């Protein structure tokens, strides 16, 4: 593979954070320990652990965690011998206090996540993370919703606040390979910091998109073992590693150990196969936040509305992360309209 960056590629495994959405934030300490131990043993670079919506996400609105995420972070930190521990924080949900606590428990990298057009709200969190001595990464979510110039402008803001890398985050799994190429290439030309890419597989192009991102110069790459992430999941880590190895890119992560972790440790955690069903396909097709799927399915059951219609409507209304309460409102409105035959 011809890469446009000569920096090493670093993989962040997100099944214990993005995958938290899939298990409705019900991870146990034992599950987190087992997964972390297996990933660490394989040589994973970074392992992210937090509530699915980041630090402080355990609320009625986003879903309560079974176990306090700080306990999960502490457990994961104790299992990390080689891997570094990462956390995610969304300004407005997670506070400086939680970030400090996570740092104290052993988290050494933080991704500060904002909607793609709202990078300005990340300034304080980025600067606090830098003061705490953490590797600090910006995470621009729903990257398909902004034109390339806007994405570049927002990434530059994060860089100016002190971010050491900025991610193009395809939260909805809506980006197509040529759109990933345009975005990563524009960022490479405009930024002096590393570029990352986080995919969702709702249109079945997560691995392909990730390869394009790497070719264009992205060096921070996310994946989830067995696709254990919101919607249809993320770039499947063990598959990506095998494909990269076949392309002559070896990242020092043991592929057999990753396959075994996928089969024996993560596989049994899946509540259902992470295939691309009609719900996850609609997410990518409509460009809706992947973590909305479970909420839309629940709302659909409650109000007897097809979850696909709810997701399409959310897409039309450009509902973004943090507006989860709109899902019930939309379902209730649609149910009323159905009853009245409107
Ligand atoms: C709400 C946080 C979100 O799950 C972050 C993420 O992984 C994404 O936007 O894809
Ligand atoms: Mn995600």
Automatic annotation (TrEMBL):
Residues 9-259 form the Pyruvate carboxyltransferase domain. Mn(2+) binds at residues 18, 198, 200. Substrate binds at residues 17-18, 171, 198, 289. It catalyses: (S)-4-hydroxy-2-oxohexanoate = propanal + pyruvate; (S)-4-hydroxy-2-oxopentanoate = acetaldehyde + pyruvate. The record marks 17 as: Transition state stabilizer. GO terms for molecular function: 2-isopropylmalate synthase activity; 4-hydroxy-2-oxovalerate aldolase activity; manganese ion binding. InterPro entries: 2-IPM_HCS-like, 4OH_2_O-val_aldolase, Aldolase_TIM, DmpG_comm, DRE_TIM_HOA, PYR_CT. The active site is at 21 (proton acceptor). GO terms for biological process: L-leucine biosynthetic process. PROSITE patterns: PYR_CT. It is an enzyme of class 4 (lyase). Keywords: Aromatic hydrocarbons catabolism, Lyase, Manganese, Metal-binding. Its EC number is 4.1.3.39. Signal peptide: none annotated. Pfam families: DmpG_comm (PF07836), HMGL-like (PF00682). PANTHER family: 2-ISOPROPYLMALATE SYNTHASE 1, CHLOROPLASTIC-RELATED (PTHR10277:SF9), HOMOCITRATE SYNTHASE-RELATED (PTHR10277). Belongs to the 4-hydroxy-2-oxovalerate aldolase family. This is 4-hydroxy-2-oxovalerate aldolase. It comes from Brevibacillus panacihumi W25. The lineage of its organism: Bacteria, Bacillati, Bacillota, Bacilli, Bacillales.
């Amino acid at each position: 593979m011809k890469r446009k960056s000569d920096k090493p590629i670093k993989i962040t495994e997100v099944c214990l954070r993005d995958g938290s959405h899939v298990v409705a934030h019900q991870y146990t300490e034992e599950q987190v320990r087992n997964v972390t131990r297996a990933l660490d043993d394989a040589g994973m670079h970074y392992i992210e652990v937090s509530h699915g919506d980041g630090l402080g996400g355990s609320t009625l609105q986003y879903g309560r965690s079974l176990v306090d995420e700080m306990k999960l972070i502490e457990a994961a930190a104790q299992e990390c011998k080689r891997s570094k521990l990462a956390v995610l924080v969304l300004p407005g949900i997670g506070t400086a206090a939680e970030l400090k606590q996570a740092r104290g428990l052993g988290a050494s990298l933080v991704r500060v996540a904002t909607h793609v057009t709202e990078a300005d709200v990340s300034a304080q969190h980025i600067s606090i993370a830098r003061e705490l001595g953490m590797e600090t990464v910006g995470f621009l979510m729903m990257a398909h919703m902004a034109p390339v110039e806007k994405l570049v402008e927002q990434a530059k803001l994060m860089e100016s606040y002190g971010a050491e890398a900025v991610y193009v985050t395809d939260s909805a799994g809506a980006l197509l390979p040529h759109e990933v190429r345009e975005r990563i290439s524009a960022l490479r030309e405009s930024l002096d910091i590393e570029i990352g890419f986080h995919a969702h597989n709702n249109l079945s192009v997560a691995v392909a998109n990730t390869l394009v991102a790497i070719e264009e110069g992205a060096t921070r790459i996310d994946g989830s073992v067995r696709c254990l992430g919101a919607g249809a999941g993320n770039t499947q880590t063990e598959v990506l590693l095998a494909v990269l190895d076949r392309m002559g890119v070896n990242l020092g992560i043991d592929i057999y150990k990753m396959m075994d972790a996928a089969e024996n440790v993560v596989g049994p955690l899946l509540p259902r196969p992470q295939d691309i069903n009609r719900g996850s396909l609609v997410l990518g097709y409509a460009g809706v936040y992947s973590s909305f799927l479970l909420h839309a399915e629940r709302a659909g059951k409650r109000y007897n509305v097809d979850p696909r219609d709810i997701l399409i409507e959310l897409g039309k209304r450009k509902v973004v992360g943090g507006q989860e309460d709109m899902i019930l409102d939309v379902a209730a409105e649609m149910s009323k309209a159905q009853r009245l035959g409107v």
